[in-house]
């Protein structure tokens, strides 16, 4: 825990950018913090915090590291360190910024911090899975809107619907749509799964829905407690919403349409509940797991299984 005595020593004894990076990394190592919202180690987290406090988006730079900081900059870094360490708050909620597909997005505690491996698929234009360039895309459970907006950047001729049940999440999504100048192509819609897009069909449906099972919810590190439970929890096996998606998706896919859904650690439950379904589980080059692909044709073929018949 950081306190006033440490604050005085830090502001007095530390001078350069790297002084603060090194001090932060050591402080993280001595603290009960969890890295899982953009970085996976104390050094990267320290660099990210310090550079964002200095309004720098660059990778670590020796000249910047050697630069002396102003008193106000030192104060800001220490105040952010208190939130990160004492409150165990994810850094993205402190800075109100998260990166997805190499672009910044506004985030706060109304939405999850973006971290989906689906970003890798977007950067590759889903080439291994789409028969043609999609004209209509649905981002189901959009949260901050990062997947919808990233898809709009990647497919310049596509229209994207960004749906979520949470009004709070849609308010954040609208901030990002405005920031990225996407009002003509990305449409935020309040919807309980598909309820708000009745009669609409899409060439691609992408979803990172709530999928955390009860056991994992009970064991989540403190950092995740800052995120909206509505965006994480999905019943005993984590499949409450995914089951609905599987049942209803065929009605909203074009003939050659494709469904891509992230279920994370609940992949094991998917395979247990649906042992006869041949899910196409994606292998990621940059890390990540629990994302499957099914075509409309496959969804229709498994219709009775998904309906529990």
UniProtKB/TrEMBL annotation:
InterPro entries linked: DNA_methylase_N6_adenine_CS, HemK-like, Ribosome_uL3_MTase, SAM-dependent_MTases_sf, Small_mtfrase_dom
Family: Belongs to the protein N5-glutamine methyltransferase family. PrmB subfamily.
EC number, as in UniProt: 2.1.1.298
HAMAP family hit by this protein: L3_methyltr_PrmB
Organism: Catenovulum sediminis
Keywords for this protein: Methyltransferase, Ribonucleoprotein, Ribosomal protein, S-adenosyl-L-methionine, Transferase
Pfam families tied to this protein: MTS
GO biological process: methylation
Ranges in coiled-coil conformation: none
PROSITE patterns, per the entry: N6_MTASE
Annotated catalysed reactions: L-glutaminyl-[ribosomal protein uL3] + S-adenosyl-L-methionine = N(5)-methyl-L-glutaminyl-[ribosomal protein uL3] + S-adenosyl-L-homocysteine + H(+)
Gene3D superfamilies according to UniProt: Vaccinia Virus protein VP39
Enzyme class: transferase
Transmembrane regions: none
Domain Methyltransferase small positions: 130-217
GO molecular-function term, one example from the UniProt record: methyltransferase activity
NCBIfam families attached to this UniProt entry: hemK_fam, L3_gln_methyl
GO cellular component: a single term: ribosome
Purpose: Methylates ribosomal protein uL3 on a specific glutamine residue.
Protein name: Ribosomal protein uL3 glutamine methyltransferase
């Amino acid at each position: 825990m950081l306190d006033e005595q440490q604050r005085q020593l830090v502001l007095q004894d530390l001078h350069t950018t790297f002084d603060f990076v090194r001090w932060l990394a050591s402080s993280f190592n001595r603290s009960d913090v969890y890295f899982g919202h953009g970085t996976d180690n104390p050094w990267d987290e320290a660099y990210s915090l310090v550079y964002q406090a200095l309004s720098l988006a660059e990778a670590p730079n020796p000249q910047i590291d050697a630069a002396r900081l102003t008193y106000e900059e030192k104060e800001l870094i220490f105040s952010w360190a208190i939130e990160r360490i004492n409150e165990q708050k994810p850094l993205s909620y402190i800075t109100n910024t998260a990166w997805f597909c190499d672009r910044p997005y506004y985030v706060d505690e109304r939405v999850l911090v973006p971290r989906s491996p689906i970003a890798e698929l977007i950067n590759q234009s889903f080439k291994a899975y789409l028969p043609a360039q999609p004209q209509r895309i649905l981002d189901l459970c959009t949260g901050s809107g990062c997947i919808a907006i990233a898809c709009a950047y990647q497919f310049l001729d596509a229209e994207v619907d960004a749906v979520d049940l949470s009004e709070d999440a849609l308010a954040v999504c609208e901030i990002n749509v405005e920031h990225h100048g996407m009002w003509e192509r990305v449409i935020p819609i309040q919807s309980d799964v598909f309820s708000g897009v009745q009669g609409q069909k899409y060439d691609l449906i992408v979803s990172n829905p709530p999928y955390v099972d009860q056991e994992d919810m009970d064991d989540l590190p403190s950092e995740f407690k800052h995120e909206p439970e509505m965006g994480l929890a999905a019943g005993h096996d984590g499949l409450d919403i995914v089951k609905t998606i599987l049942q209803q998706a065929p009605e909203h896919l074009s003939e050659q349409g494709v469904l891509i859904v992230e279920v994370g650690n609940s992949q094991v439950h998917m395979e247990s509940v649906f042992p006869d379904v041949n899910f196409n589980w994606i292998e990621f080059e940059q890390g990540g797991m629990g994302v499957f692909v099914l075509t409309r044709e496959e969804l229709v073929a498994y219709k009775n299984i998904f309906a529990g018949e």
